[in-house]
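This part of the workshop introduces the protein records we will be handling. A record pairs a protein's sequence with a compact description of its fold. As an example, a complete record with its sequence and its structure tokens follows.

_____
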Amino acid sequence: MKRSKFMIIMLLLATASVSTTIFAQDNIKAMLKKCESMEVIEASIIRNNKSLIKKPIRSTVTIKLHYTPELVAELVEAFYKDRELANSEIEQKKDGQMVSMLYKFDNSTYSFTVKDDTVNIQGVERNYSFRLR
């Protein structure tokens, strides 16, 4: 009886940790999708697939937008909402204003940089379950 309760608790803990990893960057991903639909200066999406199994190994999205204080505020808010689930983070402020943020999660990295009159946003997702040859 005690053993079965222990096994159930361990299974629940393992499931919770996996689901936290999967949904770790939901706010940042939602903001990235929103930015993709905005009027952009420049955008590129690169996907690398494993040829035999047709599964994505790496996906990179880079978007360049016109600077607006509202856009930067929304980006900062999205990053802060996912902050505690990030493995590492780098933030840079200049004159009291956020100019860049980079958050690394288990299989992804998201960043944004404000430079001159543009905002550059980048998201890189990796699938490590497949080996490159």
